[in-house]
Protein 1
Amino acid sequence: MGDITIALDAMGGDYGAKIVVPAAIAAVQQHAHVKIYLVGKQEVLAEHLSGVASEYKDRLIIHHASQTVAMDELPSSALRTKKDSSMRVAINLVKERKAQAVVSAGNTGALMATARFVLKTLPGIDRPALISELPTLVNRTRVLDLGANVDSYAEHLFQFAVMGSVLVAAEDNIDSPTVGLLNIGAEEIKGNEQVKHAAQLLTESNAVNYIGYVEGNELLKGKVDIIVCDGFIGNIALKTLEGSAKVLSRIIRETFQQTIFSRMIGLLSFSVLKRLRKRMDPAQYNGASLLGLNGIVIKSHGGANVLGFTAAINEAVVEAQKDVPNLIGERVSVLLQEGLLT
Amino acid sequence: MGDITIALDAMGGDYGAKIVVPAAIAAVQQHAHVKIYLVGKQEVLAEHLSGVASEYKDRLIIHHASQTVAMDELPSSALRTKKDSSMRVAINLVKERKAQAVVSAGNTGALMATARFVLKTLPGIDRPALISELPTLVNRTRVLDLGANVDSYAEHLFQFAVMGSVLVAAEDNIDSPTVGLLNIGAEEIKGNEQVKHAAQLLTESNAVNYIGYVEGNELLKGKVDIIVCDGFIGNIALKTLEGSAKVLSRIIRETFQQTIFSRMIGLLSFSVLKRLRKRMDPAQYNGASLLGLNGIVIKSHGGANVLGFTAAINEAVVEAQKDVPNLIGERVSVLLQEGLLT
């Protein structure tokens, strides 16, 4: 396993360097073969790095970038006016092959637009897709697309299925990961036109191990390795999950505070509730990958804490070790030759 | 407030008469002015009613229907071959004005297809939409469409917004309930074509109190009275919520069982956890309404228990008291005159 270099948008996200630098330090401590470019304002980053032991500092390289992309900035504006932003320069490092992957907690729209513009999609891939893991109880389930595209055609869903399969096969060492299409269960009208057509494409080819439709209530059951859907649907489903987890945590807290007796029980349950919170902690699932580009692009949640951003860096490390973009490129090139992609 | 008559598909759902008859008894006990037609097999229903006190029995009328619609039957087959099914005959009672509303826990696709075929949509309404309440912590939030339609046009979403507004205004006595469109937050590409166009239609007219976009994580926040979306999206979101509530309940249970200490805490927490379960109980939110038809059609969850089916009957009673189809008809007729509907 050779050395791996990851470029971090060190100014991105709700907290910028305050979160990114400690996460970078944690990552180089965890991975002896990983080197990190911290891209952003030299003086800010130098200050955050000041106390770090030199054995780690050698693998934490500050790469100056004078601008930052605001969280609410329009992607087109970022693309046009922020050519020296921490985000853009970090992506450039991947394009220049100085880093294998970029991780950013910054503006999602700007990251997707800039990454696509700078790195370009792989031949045979029309649109990159955002993939991430869901907090299932058993097994791992990834969902794509989580919001990189809307109004996807069946052909795009087919490409998402192929890309997701390659990623999961490589990361989890599964020969032929299962793929399901997210759909609704109303009998005859099962699915909209796009999903029905995608099901047909997946059934007719042997490009992936397609097992059929999956409904919304099955997202967390861990019955399928990869769930494919349009980005609009995937984003709504993911955000719905996030929202319901928050509301349920609040209900649990409130219920334990209702009476003096339940408050006492709550105090006694402290360790149990803490374990519960830990198990439901979204930080451990942080790090969505934008698949289909000439390079690895990982999107961290904007509000991620150090643990969360470290998880996103770890995702980048794993994908770099497996060289996922190259694997997708190879798979797609076979499918292009077979006429299954155009 | 005059007398209200509700027709129940007494053979529908996973449990049929075993659940429907006790729920009907509970409903006539709760509402002195409500009369119920129990539609289904005479002998089965008579047996289930045998022990009931005569003061209630007078308002529980068996209406024989020889057939039943299977839960997995194709809607087209039910429509064609089950003209004497409990579902169809119950819907017929609404068409014949012998009942104001029908409640069924049966096959969703068959119910929607049959209700639409028998009752027809109101003038100005192209497609009926399924609306239900979400388990928010504060206020009430309804979502439509939950799966009656897929591939909706912006004009349909506009109609859904109007129908939802009329229902909520009547049921909750709100002058001008707020309406949001379910959307994703990726800046520039915010929304798919359908949602962007619907936003334009809603903004340009004063037909409803439109307040803008709502994201998936805001579904349970209770910030808006009505959330409008395509049925594919709404169904995925609703099922995702159901699925996550189930998984989280399981995580809570498992966490309390992990160690001997936490098991003891679990025993002590019994009353608290019971309160928690009650608060999360989907039964209390059971009963989705198929809006836009010449008559009230309530869909109960197929697996609903007695409490859940009673909640669905109560929804039918409230809509009948307010005469919701008539209110929608009046509102739509004004919008047709104003040229806001065609």
Protein 2
Amino acid sequence: MKSHRYCVIMCGGVGSRFWPFSREDKPKQFIDFFGTGRSLLQMSYDRILPIVPKENIIVVTNAKYASLIREQLPELEERNILLEPARRNTAPCIAWAAYHIHAMDPEASMIVAPSDHLITGEQTFCDCVTRGFEFIEANDALLTLGINPVRPETGYGYIQIGPEVTPGINKVKTFTEKPNLELAKVFVDSGEFFWNAGIFLWRASVIIEALHRYDSDLTDLFDKGLADFGTDTEERFISQNFEACPANSIDYAVMEKADNVYVECARFGWTDLGTWSALYDNSQSDESANVARGAQVISYGSQGNIFLTPDDKLVVVDGLSDYIVADADDVLLICPKTREQHIKQMVNDVRMRFDKKYL
Amino acid sequence: MKSHRYCVIMCGGVGSRFWPFSREDKPKQFIDFFGTGRSLLQMSYDRILPIVPKENIIVVTNAKYASLIREQLPELEERNILLEPARRNTAPCIAWAAYHIHAMDPEASMIVAPSDHLITGEQTFCDCVTRGFEFIEANDALLTLGINPVRPETGYGYIQIGPEVTPGINKVKTFTEKPNLELAKVFVDSGEFFWNAGIFLWRASVIIEALHRYDSDLTDLFDKGLADFGTDTEERFISQNFEACPANSIDYAVMEKADNVYVECARFGWTDLGTWSALYDNSQSDESANVARGAQVISYGSQGNIFLTPDDKLVVVDGLSDYIVADADDVLLICPKTREQHIKQMVNDVRMRFDKKYL
């Protein structure tokens, strides 16, 4: 029996925060940060396989990463790779995927997930997603996953829950911006706020309808291609029209406006791995509280560092604590963990001096 | 007209102080520390060429560096490379070179110089060495070069001068061990003390005579080979006898005992490059007082560091001052300059954990 469940993995990010370990031609989602042999993208793919058949898994990415996708997910059929000709944030990406899937399967339900987050507790994840599919298949709902907040994180958006409509699933009361620390503590203590993980479930028809209501500029554009989606001319239609989409996030375009938005409160481990500190916190540290990926480390009076190096490199470090040391072949970065928000500026400085050479 | 002037470059050192940039299979003297395209050995060779014809330049090294010598000094004839089958410090090395040269040219005068020091002011060096040759050709003297001390260095031995015997050349009053800082300051202020650079000039016959008088164990051994030196059987004689030489320095074996020892007060720039700090002090620093060999450096709040990396590597460093950062392919060392005396211990720790892998 053909499954009507689909997965859309969003894989177009070019984050520079992990530079020099992530590069313009190999961003974060393609990197095996944990030395497991699988990149974040591959882990995202592996994670959904028990729920969605592989012929229903679709990866949306920027055209320039096509060969990386084929290399990392050789089992993916060519027609399941959607190549965006331009970067336009999540709303156009999700709209395209929804139109594409709906054209092939009008009964389709879908989960949309980023490719560059880390999730632990795979079975909990599977149970949660399965419950989510059942909910949106029975309801005209836009469902988002809310993560039980384990610390007053100021780097994430939060979702405030309203009344429970079915066990574990609540109406969304509000989406909030990133709070300051004081407010984040209040959020966590209240038990009413969950982290916004940017993972969504809905039927293709339901999100298309919501887009029509809340972002008609976008649907006006995609509706012109209704005869193309799911056919040989889809690619030509996208190449001629996608760039015209205004860049917009799905949160802003739909989720914060619609009234059929629900949140499933999830208990699996989650991080967007948006910072070196998050990477540090999610990695196994040695007896000196140093984290090493690739490196053999001998340390003297050195704690709390994170070393990312080529495989099997020996790092001997003395009198260095709480630093990021990233050695990526032609670039070596040494930077206090507390200064990681400046890496973006550093990357800009590198671009000014060396153009694209080290990026 | 055949020149009777010879040069012996001592090239057998295996110093681990510059690990991981210097390695057991490529020690300090073979490294191009300054990015000039010439290693310290090659610079030593180039420096003496205006004074000593190349057929009279002899390199003494450990057998395991034979191929490195041939690679770095391809113009050197095979018979001018003396390969020690064992490491026995400078006295046996110099004795062999003196017997070897004397067998070929009984009138030979010679300069003996280390291969891993840095000398600046080549013309001053040439003038000084030429004056030295003239002195020892006219006198049965053991001449050492004393460097005008420009700071109260505690890492060097000092030579106290006695009466001047000819302009710029004095009788040696005493050789001293490495002084503490207070004493070193007194030495420098006195004007009577000079750094012992370990560069010697003498006639081959005169040093052989001095060795007979002050280290007869050594000459007893070498005298057995008098029929072999300068012939096809020299190599066999050395392979059968050299290891029996007790390890000893020429300073201890002869210079501190003989009464015909003189010092020429030299004015060229000299350092034994025995420490990373010496390397730092002798290198051009950028506007942030960082020194880089190989690296392109972008620094933020970082001063006084020394970066040794593969050519053209980009180093981005934030909040790091007065560190040694040495990136040598399979090893990365990050260590405060003040801790460099511990590098030897680190190398031992590496050997304990990884055997020879990273050495």
Protein 3
Amino acid sequence: MKEIINSLSNPTVKELVKLRESARRRRERKRFVAEGVDEILAMVEAGREVETIFHNPNLASDSKAMEELMERCRNKELDFQEMGKDAFGKISYRRNPDGVLAVVHSWSLSLSEMRIGPHEKIAPIIILDEVEKPGNLGAILRTAEAMGAQIVLLSDPRVDFFNPNVIRSSRGLMSKIRVASAGKERVLDWVRARGLKLVGTSSKAECLSHRYAYHPQTAFVFGCESQGLGDFWKGNASGWVRLQMPGTASSLNLNVSVGCILNDFLRATQSD
Amino acid sequence: MKEIINSLSNPTVKELVKLRESARRRRERKRFVAEGVDEILAMVEAGREVETIFHNPNLASDSKAMEELMERCRNKELDFQEMGKDAFGKISYRRNPDGVLAVVHSWSLSLSEMRIGPHEKIAPIIILDEVEKPGNLGAILRTAEAMGAQIVLLSDPRVDFFNPNVIRSSRGLMSKIRVASAGKERVLDWVRARGLKLVGTSSKAECLSHRYAYHPQTAFVFGCESQGLGDFWKGNASGWVRLQMPGTASSLNLNVSVGCILNDFLRATQSD
């Protein structure tokens, strides 16, 4: 039986705080922290390598879910480490922690290492250009995964994929969808080499998404919320769509746009 | 020229903090605080009664937008009050304040006071049942306004509509869309009295939203994210729809669901 970690100055506590706060530390250590029962369960289900689970039984809001997580992890080679309430409070990044936080091995986001089987379905693909906010990225990954996007490509991202807010906002689903990151040129080359139709989104496009005749092999590119898509993509997309906005708002939340367009794509590409 | 407020213990500073933090205070004073140039501009454009604008010129990130706001407000009967940086920091609820915060008169959310002209278009309507999170509510109001919902009805809401997070997440658009709040029965009676078709959303519905033959006079009802729709609505909706989710995620963010369904409604109810 291991000792409970109680001290806030314990080196493990300090390391966990660093992993939470520093993208550089995460890169150096090739690890990140995932907090919450659902998030860690998603990692386990996705076959990601969970190294250690830190837990405080008194904080568990849903002891049944917690037990299920423990059960799912029992035969895996991973450590469990109990923590005192204050020590757990220090490593947590939630307002209402549910008493469990894991260190997980990060994985490669290299585009060249993305393996695709010869007959594997890769469309639809979502390209996020220069994505800036981790919460936004996580929320979009959740939507993309739910609505059947197979791959998400990050072109020149401005955020660390293993940021705790990406994990939280995606509810851990960032572990279940294939994601790669590269420069714009490389992303474009990759998409073209696979014969995908590139469709851009812009509020100035003439065609409404729900009237567009989507090809089943489509890659959608979305710009960041503040700036939209820059010149690079403008010259390279084969089609453009917009969402209908009869109200006064000039833009939609990016996550909502991704959801609406994937929903339109599903309708347009499926036979009854 | 009025004196700049610098002291953190100034009674005005204390009152503004109370208005930000306490729903009860907002109800008693019939006022709320709106922060940010865009948010306050939205209030002014919507004809809402802005009482005082507190500002710190050194914090303004976009001085042009700030000047525009000042210009738009010049002929209105409202006060401007400059604040020192620390005092402004105390009244602000943003991580990166843009140096402007207003006290605005709240308005009635009473369903019986909602005035509708004899030939006025009222559909589509969004009913949010037992909405819990202010950030979620605000984001949905932004989406609903952008995508042409005319009215949002809150049935048994568990959040104060004038909460600062509602204002921020809606980007101030909560001032531009008609919103009323009432108990479930009253909301249902109101919708029925106007001959609207009530369509519920549930992941267990048989019909996909993008195949549903929407009637132009439709009211959509959405449950809270954690629980979905309860028995009351289950017995009263005339139709049910779901969104297609080929991925592993069991649910979508509520804001994304509202966007997808309004997008489907727009497509289904418009002639070319």
Protein 4
Amino acid sequence: MVSKKMLSEYARLAVKIGVNVQKGQPLLINGPVEAFEFIRECVKVAYEAGASEVWVDYRDNNLQRMSFEHVETETLKEIPSWAIDRIKYRIDKKYCVLHVISDDPDLLEGIDSQKVFEVQMANMKASNQFQYYTMNNIGQWSIVAYPNRKWAKKVFPELSEDEAYDRLWDAIMSTSRVSEDGDVTKAWDEHNREVKVHSEKLNEFNFKSLHFENSLGTDLKVGLIRNHIWEGGADKTQGGVTFNPNIPTEEVFTMPDCYHIDGTVVSTKPLSYNGKLIDEFKLTFKDGKVIEYSAKTNEDVLKNMLDTDDGSRSLGEVALISYDSPISNSNILFYNTLFDENASCHLALGKCYPTNVKGGSDMTSEELHKLGGNDSMIHVDFMFGSRDMSVTGTTYDDKEVVVFADGNFVF
Amino acid sequence: MVSKKMLSEYARLAVKIGVNVQKGQPLLINGPVEAFEFIRECVKVAYEAGASEVWVDYRDNNLQRMSFEHVETETLKEIPSWAIDRIKYRIDKKYCVLHVISDDPDLLEGIDSQKVFEVQMANMKASNQFQYYTMNNIGQWSIVAYPNRKWAKKVFPELSEDEAYDRLWDAIMSTSRVSEDGDVTKAWDEHNREVKVHSEKLNEFNFKSLHFENSLGTDLKVGLIRNHIWEGGADKTQGGVTFNPNIPTEEVFTMPDCYHIDGTVVSTKPLSYNGKLIDEFKLTFKDGKVIEYSAKTNEDVLKNMLDTDDGSRSLGEVALISYDSPISNSNILFYNTLFDENASCHLALGKCYPTNVKGGSDMTSEELHKLGGNDSMIHVDFMFGSRDMSVTGTTYDDKEVVVFADGNFVF
């Protein structure tokens, strides 16, 4: 467990720098019951910042697992209309949202994948509007992590449960730039400036496509949408409020052209999806769609993911992170995308962020899709960066520019 | 903290004996975040008993206090329509309800009473249908307690917070008949049989009224509704499912005639209402209505309570408990009605239980009210039993029968 001081500093990071709740704005916090003391701190910070109201939705991984074990699929799939109205209400009231995640990477191991898939589909359909609300930066949102013992033991299997839990706390704090004596606001200001150097440079190049290659078998050409924007670090809502959607974050990312992705990509880290770990998987794309796939573990979960809808076989995000980056150098495999995606170049299957193209937030999903912006109910990042990754950009006048050599940015 | 074994025995008591969830029935649990381990146990027991689905609504006293400190009254009073639809949904689905209470008796001390009153009014109006659902025994419901440190320290101010917490656990376990080696099912079967002896005897007498007197100034005549029923211990839903609404419980209770209550009643224990303690209070009734009142502390809270609606100045329940009863003999003042009402004769301001009169569950509130069954949004028990309480019953043929002498049942 971290000190009270660290915990309240972390709450300040989550609420002031992460979601950046505004005076008079309501805040929704989703969080695990075990984190109630941290969440109390977050609520306190939010009221001090002038939040008009704070609502907390608590959840419990254990109850979720039990419900999958005992409740019939049809019952789990039934989303009552009040739950949909609640989502609409929160959108209308312009809530900002803080997600406190605390996943167990193997939470649903042993549960029928088809059951999990069907229930997740029902939930995604119900929360479609909320996905639109956040992915279009209408309201601020942020994701921070809170450790739990099962997750900790997965990350540090050689340690006792208590030691592992403390180590995971340390890892979360250090990657999130929270320290006993440091100034978290200053640390995040500096960090966001550093990230911006890469995104600005990439925006100047205005590449038509990127070519990824490494010795593991990745050989993938990803077209970029015309007028794409590289983003990274702090983001802005449509109304101009700065927020940090991911804590921690190291990536710069943009929008692929979902009709022009060809070749093969090989994963380099396991992916926890719907409570199960998909590991050692490979995807082959043709004209923007996955036409072949395989995985060493939980291939059926990968299959279900790819079969979600029309857009789940194409890409909505491409992100660059140097192999030599702080989270990567910690040599910790977190089994959690919030962290692992910041240690590795990654792609996301599914929906694009409309903010990654000029004017994207003003387009309908159909308009965006026509231009090459992928649409889907899912948005699932997976990691494929490696020590020997090379990335070459091609400009609109067919010049080739080396972006990555030996796993790292060359500029 | 109690042992894991005790905790799981307590969960079994709450779910199997308290709310008695049926095979194929959904269960709603309201509980405090601090109790998440106990609630997990309850959910486990519920699924083992065949519950179709278990939903948990977590709450946090600290967040409630903060919202009263920081959120405007108008915002707190606004109940979104989805919240009302959620109540309807749960009634339609025939949820049974387990309330895990863990109050801080002074939670809202220092908060403007008018603000608390207005917010509570709005909440009561919104949950009116649910009150009807439970008070008419349409679905099973039960209340159990979970300790917290502030409550514990209030009960045992001379102990350290940790010691007080452990002592409160012990007190809850022993009054609820949960022990390391005992059989909780057997203990409750026996206890319910004992309680029934008194209620059956009182039903035979079929009193027209009861006269309460003691040296503290109580001199109150409470008419009883014609065809009243004394109840106590286990109860039954309209569909015939047995459940125990209160854990613990020692009382037998019935329905006053809300037009025939006259005289003065003096409280003998403080009453925690809306997060504040009303203490040393006195009520004078005429023709069934409170016409005078006073309190040494928080008189404004008492005033607001009495002013809630038309029925909040009359009585909905009269309950008899021997002064020489287990909870009373523990000499612990719990500052919590779930416990304190079982140590003392008590009355409830507000709505009656329709099950306390023959055919009551089939009557509308208006029909019931005509006969003398009080109607209100509130139902607030308060304690007035004492060591020297005498209770005399008057039968329909004007015979007087001594029911209590020196604080105890004479039969």
